[in-house]
Amino acid sequence: MRAQIFLSFDGRCEAALQFYAKALGGKVRLFRWGNSPMAGQAPEGWADKVLHGSVSVGDSEIAGADVPSPKTPQGFSILLNVDGPEQAERAFDALNENATIVLPMQETFWSTRYGILVDQFGIQWEINCQQAPAS
After folding, report:
1. String of b and e for 20-53 (b: at least 16 CB within 10 Å)?
2. Which three-class secondary structure string do you get for the chain?
3. How does pLDDT run across 13-69, given as a tens digit for each residue?
């Protein structure tokens, strides 16, 4: 069994997944409404929108789709655990394009680097370096 993140977008799924792939070094796969057996159920003008897409992030995957009237994400974050402080800084900086910083990247009692931001697509990310700070 494996849990997977699935995000709903308002027509910007491809842009979001491409952005995540560029920021985090992943590979994007897209399946469009117009090329699916559900093409007749697509909202008008949505043939090129994403019915199902995904981007690999390390050994995990973030999936998503364009859906009519998606809800604003609430009550969750994507927690990205990285191996070192430099990787934490790189990921935070890359995801920070047109983002809102909730908590600047900093040292905490559990981690050498930790920060929170809401990206340009409205998704909240927590970046956490798993190295414990020196005592």
Report:
1. bbebbebebebebbeeeeeeeebeeebeebbbbb
2. CCCCEEEEECCCHHHHHHHHHHHHCCCEEEEEHHHCCCHHHCCCCCCCCEEEEEEEECCEEEEEEECCCCCCCCCCCEEEEECCHHHHHHHHHHHCCCCEEEEEEECCCCCCCEEEEECCCCCEEEEEECCCCCC
3. 999 999 999 999 999 999 999 999 988 888 889 999 999 999 998 889 999 999 888
The reported pTM is: 0.91
User: Domain locations in the chain?
Assistant: 5-66, 78-129
The overall longest dimension of the chain from CA atoms, in Å, is: 61
Question: Judging by DSSP bridges, how do beta strands 5-9 and 60-66 pair with one another?
Answer: parallel
Q: What CATH number is given for 78-129 in this structure? A: 3.30.720.110
State the residue for tokens 């655990």. Answer: 81
Q: Return the CATH class of domain 5-66.
A: alpha beta
